[in-house]
Design brief:
64% of the residues lie in helices and 4% in strands. The protein is mainly α. It has a single domain, classed as Rhomboid-like fold (Up-down Bundle). Helix 8 packs parallel to helix 10.
């Protein structure tokens, strides 16, 4: 009989990072861009954030760049420690569970879908004179849509009644701001959460054990 066991890590921190490489590379890039925001002059900071936004103006001119670059900036660099915690709790756990490729597909889908739908609705509101024209150039950056997607898909990782309690909390957290006159960002969060919940088929076969796992034989 063959029994598979996970290896005992000799370097726990490095092993932890390697178990979710995509999450930690992403977090490293965000840390670098946050340092850039802190050190550049104030007038360049606004230009920098605007050019890396996924607002209507940038999506119309550079759609691929806007969607990609907006996921690597946060508007307040001083909230970086909070994002580190949130990434470890949600993103890293989803990546370890699903594997890097499926995690990346789900998170990218949530980020892109939430961005495009929310910005399309902003454009419609501008055309109907329900929103100011300046919303075309609004700074729209950050990782929150990807985080909301990870929060949604992590629902299926929890057992039994905990799953429903967690789901109720998620719906309340993201739904209440939207129900009480939320912004386009609140709408994007709700859409991203829904994308995560709709990713259930991708959670049915979690990632296989690593090839480096120890093998012990019993006779």
């Amino acid at each position: 009989m063959i029994e598979y066991r996970e290896p005992e890590p000799s370097r726990p921190v490095w092993s932890w990072i390697r178990s979710a490489p995509g999450t930690h590379i992403w977090m490293l890039i965000i840390a670098i861009t946050s340092v850039v925001v802190v050190i550049v002059p104030d007038h360049l900071e606004h230009v920098l954030l605007h050019r890396n936004s996924s607002n209507i103006h940038e999506l119309a001119r550079h759609p691929v760049r806007a969607l990609l670059s907006s996921a690597f900036w946060i508007e307040s660099p001083y909230s970086l420690p909070l994002y580190v915690v949130l990434f470890e709790v949600f993103q890293a756990n989803v990546e370890r569970w699903l594997g890097t490729l499926r995690w990346l597909f789900v998170i990218a889908t949530g980020h892109i879908t939430a961005t495009l739908i929310s910005q399309k609705l902003v454009q419609m509101a501008i055309e109907d004179h329900r929103a100011p024209r300046s919303m075309v150039h609004v700074v729209d950056i950050g990782v929150s849509y990807g985080l909301a997607t990870a929060v949604g898909v992590l629902t299926y990782r929890l057992p039994g009644p905990w799953r429903w309690l967690y789901l109720a909390g998620c719906v309340a957290f993201f739904g209440l701001p939207l129900a009480t006159g939320g912004t386009f960002t609140d709408l994007g969060h709700a859409i991203a959460l829904a994308v995560g919940l709709l990713a259930w088929p991708l959670t049915r076969n979690p990632r296989p054990r690593r090839a480096g796992a120890h093998v012990s034989r019993e006779t």
